[in-house]
Amino acid sequence: MGRSQETFNKKEVRNKKEKKRKDKLAKKEARKDTEKKSSLEDMMAYVDENGMITSTPPDPTQKKKIKAENIEIGIPKRDSLPEADPIRKGSVTFFNESKGFGFIKDSETQESIFVHVNNLLEEIKENNIVSFEVEMGQKGPIATKVKLFK
Length: 150
Prior knowledge:
Layout: H1 8-34, H2 40-43, E1 46-47, E2 53-54, E3 87-96, E4 101-106, E5 112-116, E6 129-136, E7 141-148
Parallel strand pairs: 5-7
Antiparallel strand pairs: 1-2, 3-4, 3-6, 4-5, 6-7
């Protein structure tokens, strides 16, 4: 009689594969048994009056009637906003004559506004009280038509 051609290592590999296959099949069966049937109700989510997502449906007795014409979509019209005075007053906090720019602190809003030498009507220095108009530039508000306040 001849010796078996199957070595110990080959038997071990075959046994491991068979064990792995059985474990996988057992896990699949266990998942199938414990899995509950999902319905549409389980997947639904509701938003409450505070904007929070909940799993409970809203109470129909607390429903409020809203007229469609009362809903405003967009931003309010420009005429409803109070018109600000275009000419403002402020003090020069910094001005560099060699570079030709500086900053003015608005007396009402305490906002720092950039000013360029091209927008000056009169020469200004630091701590001068000036009157000016504000326009939007590329990087933010800029002061134009700047002159000394008398």
